[in-house]
């Protein structure tokens, strides 16, 4: 190899080495990134529980999902307990107060920032914090759903009907702050999970109105398997003077889903019932009764 060829070869290696080092230092949009954890602190005013806080990520943040995990329970899974919706002129510090915790229990928290393009940024989990001033251990902070309660699914008109809703227990102490929580059903597919409010008529213990799935599910949920995750309580804080809207959730309470075959002359007589909670159901995008060849 001649002198000039060697020089060109060496210079090419240097350029390639510089390019590779520059490439390694770059962060691309689809690269996963874990942010620093939110801060956590005990609070007793204006409400009991734990205060979670972290600065706003950027102006394109549309929502911030708040997750919690019970450190005392080795089998516990992370649960979605709230959502923050920062307005355009929102404060830099995004604060969430979690009242749905029991005294002497230990919890960790994380934020998930969701951009307008649906990209998500996850924080680390916070340090574990033991609750000093929370709710008493005997107080239930979720919907208690006995086996008598179930959703009846109708494959003929694609509806869900909540049966024996009067047996569900929640806020038996009738505390004012818990009265702000309204029941919602949580539905999921293999890639998404959404909640939908259940009206008072849908919770009627004797003659509940059915929930029409065709009236509520997104178009991309048709022709795919849908499951009922359960019910949750939802409390919206829409103070017009606040620069951050907050939604508070109870933990999820599972509910069984059944297909009921009833007697044609007396609907109170059940001929058979099938549990489809794990099997799920599908809502077709097009329903046709067929036709006559012409």
Structural class: mainly beta
Strand content: 35-45%
Write down the overall mean pLDDT.
86
Contiguous runs where pLDDT drops below 50 for at least 5 residues? 3-10, 13-31
Bin the helical content: under 10%
The tally of beta strands, per DSSP, is 19
Could you tell me the radius of gyration in angstroms?
A: 26 Å
The number of helices is 1
Helix-strand pattern: HEEEEEEEEEEEEEEEEEEE
Separation of termini? Answer: 82 Å
The major pleated sheet works out as: 11 strands, mixed
Give the overall shape, derived from the CA principal axes.
globular
Written description of the protein model:
8% of the residues lie in helices and 38% in strands. It contains 1 helix and 19 strands. The chain has one helix at residues 3-25, and strands spanning 34-35, 39-43, 49-55, 61-70, 79-86, 93-98, 106-115, 120-123, 129-130, 150-154, 159-163, 182-188, 193-197, 211-212, 225-237, 244-249, 256-262, 270-275, 281-282.
